[in-house]
Amino acid sequence: MIAPTVSRRLPLVWLALHRRRRMLLGLLLGIVVFETLIVVITSTVPPGQLFGARRTPPGAFKAFSGSNGDVSIASYPGLLGAGLTHPFWIALQLTVIGSLGAAAVAADVESGTIELLMTRPVSRRRLLAERAGALMAASVLMNAAATLTIALGVALSSELRAAVPEGGVFAAGLLGCALTFSLAGPVLAVSAFTRRRAYVVGAAVTLGAVGFALNFIALAWSPVASLRYVSPFHYYTPGDALAHGGVPWASLGVLVAVGAVGLLVAFRLLERRDLAI
């Protein structure tokens, strides 16, 4: 009896999620299975053995463990962090952001249904706000699924419990939500500006792929080390959070600020846009 009441209050949120329920269910299952595999590998194979005896992974591998500090991928926090920065993890998150970001505005403009929607008593701000809410709800759900899977794995393994602080997993999950928000804001701005959903999906993939590549190159090649500051993955450090158990509030603030600016730009663009063209 509660669901119908809530759906009447936020119809566009629930409609957006309902239309993509099969996709979201498949992505949730995929991220749970993947993180379970990461936990199993981490708890059964000593991290040092993955890279050979007496070998230290290159510094650029910090990009794969989600660290800007002293956390090596050849460690329990580093391997678990790799599960939260792996290209597969990134691809799942970008699928959610690209799909729901395109559906926010651009998909309706491309299909010609935006004019029909605007004939109903739905303001532009409400349209964007509720659909942005659906995107963020799906992203939080994805991060929660990954976080709880890792948390359960850590709780069941004495070796992982000794190496990963109790709050580290949830700090990493909070950073994951901030990262997806930092990507979702600009993607929504693109959706509010363009009339092609393909452009929105392309923007999501570009932000994720280029951002990760910049951080990797900056860590691998010292002459361009300053490039890391323009990548969201420089501020997304789940490996450090897993190792130290604390939330890097400055990095979290940067990610949230980028997402908020992108969202504000999206509202501004949609208010000024002629939806007929």
UniProtKB/TrEMBL annotation:
TM annotation in the entry: 24-45, 88-111, 132-156, 168-191, 198-221, 241-267
Alphabetic keyword roster: Membrane, Transmembrane, Transmembrane helix
UniProt superkingdom: Bacteria
GO CC terms in record: plasma membrane
ATP-binding is among the record's keywords: no
A GO term, aspect molecular function: ABC-type transporter activity
Pfam families linked to this entry: ABC2_membrane_2 (PF12679)
Record-given protein name: ABC transporter permease subunit
Lineage: Bacteria, Bacillati, Actinomycetota, Actinomycetes, Kitasatosporales
